[in-house]
Amino acid sequence: MRKKITVVGSGNVGTTTAQLIAENDLADVVLIDIIEGIPQGKALDILEACPVWNSGANVIGTNSYDDTSNSDIVVITAGLARKPGMSRDDLLYANAKIIKQVAEEIAATSPDSIIIVVTNPMDTMAQITQQITGFPSERVLGMGGVLDTSRMRSFIAMETGTHPSDVKAMVLGGHGDLMLPITRLTTVEEKAITEVLSESKIQQIIERTKNGGAEIVSYLKTGSAYYAPAASSVEMIKTIFEIKNDPLPCSVYMNGEYGITGVYIGVPVRLDSEGLKEIIELELSAEEKKSLHNSAEAGRDLLKKLET
Asked: Which of 106, 107, 172, 295 is the Cys-Cys partner for 178 at CB 3.0 to 4.6 Å?
């Protein structure tokens, strides 16, 4: 039986995610949105491209969660996008309200699904989704770390003229200003990045990675990034479907790993058909561990804001 993936939100991120799923023939796709006509039109357009891609995916658009029932995976992209001058955290209250409604619908129609949360502030939205659905935390995942790591690899490849596949990197922490690129584990053609780039250039790349989303927002003015977030979500889907098996940095609920409990934060993990299979605990320096804990505390602060 073919797999079924629902993408919630037919904006740029959601539509591009649906396109990539269909283009790779990973599953049948349901694109859902509250606006009538938009998901239907975009889904039909994607469906009509499937013969060109030699894909057998069935793609439908809908405004009813009944059509999403029994999905294997649900990708949540619904919510407001950032505008110039806004941080991810500025979206907190508006997107929390949207996510709560979406989570309730998913719990009712796809109670056995694995959820991938993309909506910002992503770590907090993942935690809200888990709380509202009541799903085991292993089945609610946040996307950010895959995206942040991909951005860092892109910037290193640009700077060194290296193919991105020859750049290895790992970005931990929250999907925000306190993310933690682990530079000592970053390599270019199997050489330590410190052998290839100066310390000042490495710091520039780290800052650009942290502000990668804001940089795109500053160009677009009326929207935010969507190609890379969509590609990152699909990378997670491929791993869940066990097409790939490489570790990924994803936002997951912490139960004492790295000395952190009770909050979603980005760490390296292994995924499988049940969702989170394993949290990989790297040996962190005291400074790295402090930075990771600071990032986790920032996530707790956002949750506290929603409780007040």
From this structure: 295
- Which stretches of the chain are assigned E, i.e. beta strand? 4-8, 28-32, 59-62, 73-76, 114-117, 140-142, 167-168, 171-172, 180-181, 187-188, 191-192, 248-255, 261-272, 275-279
For residues 230 and 23, what is the distance between their CA atoms, to the nearest angstrom?
Answer: 13
Whether residue 293 lies in the annotated active site: no
pLDDT (tens digit, 0 to 9) for every residue of the chain, 308 residues total? 899 999 999 999 999 999 999 999 999 999 999 999 999 999 999 999 999 999 999 999 999 999 999 999 999 999 987 677 766 667 888 899 999 999 999 999 999 999 999 999 999 999 999 999 999 999 999 998 999 999 999 999 999 999 999 999 999 998 878 899 999 999 999 999 999 999 999 999 999 999 999 999 999 988 889 999 999 999 999 999 999 999 999 999 999 999 999 999 999 999 999 999 999 999 999 999 999 999 999 999 999 988 86
Which fold does the domain 145-307 belong to in CATH?
Answer: L-2-Hydroxyisocaproate Dehydrogenase; Chain A, domain 2 (3.90.110)
Contact 130, 137 (CB under 8 A): yes
* Strand pairing category for 275-279 and 140-142: unpaired
Which part of the chain is CATH 3.90.110.10? 145-307
Strand order in the sheet with 114-117: 59-62, 28-32, 4-8, 73-76, 114-117, 140-142, 248-255, 261-272, 275-279
Residue with tokens 């969702």: 275
- Locate 247 and state its tokens: 């570790």
How far apart are alpha carbons 295 and 308 in whole angstroms?
Answer: 21
Q: Is the distance from CB of 75 to CB of 102 less than 8 angstroms?
A: no
Pairing of strands 261-272, 114-117: unpaired
Distance from C-alpha of 6 to C-alpha of 69, rounded to nearest angstrom: 9
Listed in order, the ranges of the chain carrying CATH 3.40.50.720 are: 4-143
Residue range 4-143 forms a domain whose CATH class is alpha beta
Q: Global pTM?
A: 0.95
